[in-house]
Amino acid sequence: MQIRDSNARYGFISQLLHWLMALLIGLQFVWAWRFLQLDIGRERYELVNQHKSIGITLLLLVLLRIVWRQFNIKPTPVSMSDKQKQAMKLVHRSIYALLVVIPPLGWAMSSAGGFTVNWFELMQLPALLEQNDAHKTLLRSIHATFAWLLFVVLGGHILMAGYHHFYLKDGLLWRMLPRWKR
Ligand code: HEM
User: Fold this and answer.
1) Does the beta carbon of 150 lie inside 6 Å of ligand 1?
2) For the chain, what is the radius of gyration of the CA atoms?
3) How far is CA 46 from CA 14, 75, 100, 142, 154, in A?
4) pLDDT single digits (tens) 29-40
5) CA distance linking residue 47 with residue 59, whole number of Å
6) How would CATH label the architecture of 12-181?
7) Does ligand 1 lie within 6 Å of residue 21's CB atom?
8) In ligand 1, which atom is closest to the CA atom of 117?
9) How much is the pTM?
């Protein structure tokens, strides 16, 4: 099994982080969609708490992914025009940037609202801010705007990957999948 990235493809650690993060990001939007439809109550409270724990996990995973990238060769991009390469770079950087800022914004929003962040009931995280309703409202709109922006950017990322793999048939997706899938 190839653990590290190579010129030709991503290794096991990058693949694991990529698909685990994809799954958790998907859950974050499903959870948000579910709790946004509920009135204040036990069920909503529990869903929001799970959303917070998954979000903190995502923050740890994206930081790990960024560190791991520094210790690995970057696989050579599949053949595409310079414009496409630039667009791809912009999309990837935006995804990383949004994944780094969205969770702390959610965490700060909870603190400003006077709520604790308890990671899967295992560890209570410190409050990032003092309670302040105006700050909570502001942070909520920034968190929501960035989160829905991430949704759009990820849509672009998935479309681009699908276009390359299924239409251009350049095998882009194989690089992010274990070799036995071939
Ligand atoms: C990448 C990670 C995350 C994503 C993609 C995400 C996404 C979202 C989305 C889409 C919403 C609904 C926004 C709307 O009102 O339209 C939301 C709300 C919220 N998020 Fe996150 N979030 C993430 C991480 C976090 C974290 C780490 C926390 C706290 C520790 C958090 C706390 C909250 C809270 C408190 C709400 C509002 C809940 C309510 O309406 O009562 N989020 N988030």
Assistant:
1) yes
2) 18
3) 31, 41, 24, 22, 26
4) 999 999 999 999
5) 18
6) Up-down Bundle (1.20)
7) no
8) 30
9) 0.95
